[in-house]
Design goal:
single chain; 106 residues; mainly alpha; Arc Repressor Mutant; 2 domains; two-stranded antiparallel sheet
Length: 106
């Protein structure tokens, strides 16, 4: 389907488009229950969920561009052995946890 709502110059509302999905009945019912629990329509609920999932997917794929000199410095830092007060404290905590053995969860 093409556009379900046309953009109007007077209202400046964005054009919307239909998206048709085939979904199992049990999943549709689950979506409907969740949407009703928030007082929202199925469409509004699904659009918001899809938008959030899309943002999450992009956030997981951060790309940082640097010049060669900066990249080489970054690699050199990664190749250095861990050091410093923070690393030493972390090492002590990990050592103590290993000595204590597995913890029982209540």
């Amino acid at each position: 389907m093409r556009s379900s709502t046309s953009s109007s110059a007077a209202t400046s509302e964005p054009t919307t488009h239909a998206v048709n999905l085939q979904v199992r009945e049990d999943i549709r019912d689950l979506i409907d229950r969740a949407a009703r629990s928030q007082g929202r329509s199925r469409s509004d609920f699904m659009i918001d969920a899809a938008r959030r999932a899309t943002e999450e997917a992009f956030l997981d794929q951060t790309l940082v561009r640097v010049d060669r000199q900066t990249y080489e410095h970054f690699l050199a830092v990664l190749d250095q052995p861990p050091e410093g007060e923070g690393f030493e404290r972390l090492s002590l905590v990990e050592r103590d946890q290993r000595r204590a053995g597995p913890q029982q969860q209540i």
